[in-house]
Design a protein that fits this description.
By secondary structure, the chain is an alpha/beta fold. The protein contains 21 helices and 12 strands. The protein has an 8-stranded mixed β-sheet, sandwiched between helices. Strands 2-3-1-4 form a 4-stranded antiparallel β-sheet. Strand 2 and strand 3 form a beta hairpin.
C-alpha cells in the first residue's frame, strides 16, 4: 500500500522552501547587516541617553459616604464609580497642583516642568492612584513624587474644609435670623447642634485622598531600558531585513533560481552548466564535460519518440551562453561517435568562429542566397562540422524563413546524426521565430544572475504562441560542484604528455568519429 504524502513532502512545498532558502542565501549579507546593526544602534543610543529614575507614591481616594452622613446629606444612590475615578484622576492632574508643588520644592522649578516630570495614572480598577516622578536624580525624583502627593492631599483638604466652612456659615446665618423664642425652640436647638457638628467636621477633614504609600529612592534607572531597546532593535532589524530583501527581489529582475526558470518556461531543466573559466575561453573542463554528457543523455531520451534530428538552441537575451552550449554539446556528441553539424543562424552577431578558433568563411548567408553549396561551405573543427554565419546579410529573417532554409535542414538531417542550430536571442529579434516550426526540438538556455524575468516571460510567450517544440531548458552559471573528485578521480589534471595521443590528422579523427560503430549513411 503506498504511503500517502504529507503536506510538507509535496514537490511544490519543497520547491518553495528551496526558493526561500535560495533567496536567503543570496541576501544573507543584507539580513546580517540589518539584524546586527539595528541592535547595535539601539544599544549605542541607550548608552548615549541620560539615565533617569522614577519614584512612585500612591494615593488612596477616600469614600465620601461618612462625611456625607455627618453633614446630614444622603449620599447619591446612583453614584457612578467609574465617573468618580475619572473625576479624581482629573483633579490630580490639575495645573494648580504642579504650580503648588514647584513652589514647595523650590530650586527654580516651574509648574510646566513639574507637569513634564510627574505622571498621574490609576492603578487598575482600584481606588489607588500612582504619582510617578522622573528625574536624573533618584533622590529628587522621590522628593518630587512625595511633595506632589502631599500637595494633592493638602489641596483636597482645603477644598473639603471650604465646603464645610460654607455650610457652617450658612447654619450660623440661619440661627441669627431666628427670634429669641425660636432659638430656644426645636429649630434653634437643631441649628446650634448642626453648627457644633460642622465645627467638629472641619477639624477632622482630610480631603478627598490620603497618602497610602510614600515614594522611596529608586536604586535602578527607569530609562533608558537597554535590554528592551536592544530587543526592539533586533525586531526592527528583522523587519528591515525582510523589507530590504523583498524590495531587492522585486526591483532586481534577474533570475537566480533554476526552479523559477522551469516555472517560467513550463519545461524541465535538462542540464546545468557550472561556471567555468575554460568554457569562457572556448575550452572545457571535467565538470563542464560531465554536464554536456548529462545533457546529451537527456536529449537522447527525448529524441526517442521524434523523427527530426534538428535541435534549435536559443535564449531570451545575449550573453546567456547559447553559442557556448551549442559548441560544447556538439563536441560531446562527436566524442560519443555521432556525426554532428552546427549551423550558426545568428547572422547579426556571429561568434562561433571565435569560439571554435577557426577562420571566418562563407557560411549560411551565402548558402541561403544561392551563392554557395552546403558541402563546400561547411568547415571542420574539433571533430564537428560547422556551417558558420558568413558575411552579415541585410535580411537575415527573410533568409531563415525561405524555402532554401527548409531544404537545408532536410539535407542536414539526412546527412548527420544531430543538427544543432545556434540562433540569435528570440525575444530581441525575429530571426529565429520562423525556425521554430522547422526543427524537431527547441532548447533554451538561461544564465543565473543574467537572465531577467521579463525577457524569459517574453520568450516563453513567443514559444507558446508559435507552438514551438520546446523540450527543456539549460541553466548556465550554476555553482561549481564541490566534489571535483567525482569528475576527476585523481583530483589532478594529467600533464599534456600523459594524455592519450590524438590522431595525426584532425580530419582523420573526425572521420573516425563519424563512422565509429555504424555504417555510412546514404545521401538523399
Amino acid at each position: 500500500m503506498p504511503t500517502p504524502q504529507m503536506p510538507n513532502d509535496r514537490p511544490e512545498d519543497k520547491r518553495a522552501l528551496r526558493r526561500e532558502l535560495a533567496i536567503l542565501r543570496r541576501n544573507w549579507l543584507i539580513a546580517l547587516i540589518c539584524v546586527v546593526v539595528a541592535p547595535i544602534v539601539a544599544f549605542a543610543y541607550s548608552k548615549a541617553q541620560t539615565k533617569e529614575y522614577t519614584a512612585t507614591a500612591s494615593l488612596l481616594f477616600t469614600n465620601q459616604t461618612v462625611e456625607a452622613g455627618i453633614l446630614g446629606v444622603e449620599p447619591a444612590a446612583n453614584a457612578d464609580p467609574a465617573r468618580e475615578a475619572a473625576t479624581n484622576l482629573k483633579l490630580a492632574s490639575l495645573t494648580t497642583l504642579s504650580v503648588r508643588t514647584a513652589k514647595a520644592v523650590g530650586g527654580g522649578l516651574t509648574g510646566a516642568e513639574v507637569s513634564e516630570k510627574v505622571e498621574v495614572s490609576p492603578e487598575g480598577e482600584s481606588e489607588l492612584v500612582s504619582i510617578a516622578a522622573t528625574d536624573p536624580s533618584p533622590v529628587f525624583a522621590a522628593k518630587l513624587a512625595n511633595e506632589f502627593a502631599k500637595q494633592f492631599v493638602s489641596f483636597g483638604r482645603e477644598i473639603e474644609t471650604a465646603k464645610v466652612t460654607r455650610a457652617q456659615k450658612l447654619a450660623e446665618a440661619q440661627l441669627e435670623s431666628l427670634s429669641s423664642s425660636e432659638r430656644s425652640g426645636p429649630s434653634g436647638k437643631t441649628l446650634e447642634r448642626r453648627i457644633v457638628e460642622l465645627q467638629a467636621l472641619a477639624t477632622i477633614q482630610t480631603g478627598r485622598a490620603e497618602l497610602a504609600q510614600r515614594a522611596t529612592v529608586p536604586e535602578s534607572p527607569s530609562s533608558p531600558n537597554t535590554k528592551r531597546n536592544v530587543a526592539l532593535g533586533l525586531v526592527v532589524g528583522i523587519l528591515l531585513a525582510i523589507a530590504a530583501i523583498f524590495l531587492r527581489e522585486q526591483f532586481d529582475r534577474r533570475i537566480r533560481d533554476s526552479d523559477e526558470i522551469e516555472e517560467l518556461y513550463g519545461v524541465p531543466t535538462l542540464g546545468t552548466i557550472p561556471n567555468s573559466k575554460a568554457l569562457a575561453r572556448g575550452g572545457t573542463d571535467a565538470a563542464v564535460s560531465e554536464a554536456m554528457m548529462m545533457l546529451r543523455a537527456n536529449l537522447r531520451y527525448i529524441d526517442a519518440g521524434r523523427q527530426s534530428r534538428s535541435l534549435l538552441i536559443t535564449s531570451a537575451a545575449p550573453r546567456e551562453g547559447k553559442t557556448m552550449l551549442a559548441s560544447s554539446l556538439a563536441r560531446a556528441s562527436a566524442e560519443a561517435g555521432e556525426r554532428v553539424l552546427v549551423i550558426e543562424a545568428d547572422m547579426r552577431r556571429p561568434t562561433l568562429a571565435q569560439v571554435l578558433k577557426i577562420a571566418p568563411a562563407p557560411g549560411i548567408a551565402m548558402v541561403l542566397a544561392g551563392a554557395e553549396h552546403p558541402e563546400t561551405a561547411i568547415k571542420q573543427a574539433d571533430g564537428i562540422d560547422v556551417l558558420l554565419a558568413g558575411p552579415p546579410p541585410p535580411n537575415p529573417a527573410e533568409l531563415l524563413e525561405s524555402n532554401r532554409m527548409t531544404k537545408l535542414l532536410e539535407w542536414a538531417e539526412g546527412e548527420y546524426d544531430r543538427v544543432i542550430i545556434d540562433t540569435p536571442p528570440a525575444s530581441l529579434v525575429a530571426d529565429a521565430l520562423p525556425l521554430f516550426g522547422k526543427v524537431g526540438a527547441v532548447l533554451t538556455v538561461a544564465r543565473l544572475g543574467e537572465s531577467t524575468r521579463d525577457s524569459v516571460e517574453q520568450l516563453s510567450e513567443h514559444l507558446r504562441r508559435l507552438g514551438a517544440p520546446l523540450v527543456g531548458v539549460v541553466v548556465n552559471g550554476v555553482a561549481r560542484p564541490s566534489e571535483t573528485s567525482y569528475y576527476r578521480p585523481t583530483g589532478i589534471t594529467p600533464p599534456a604528455g600523459d594524455r592519450p595521443a590524438k590522431s595525426s590528422s584532425g580530419a582523420e579523427s573526425a572521420e573516425n568519429g563519424r563512422t565509429r560503430g555504424r555504417a555510412p549513411r546514404a545521401r538523399r
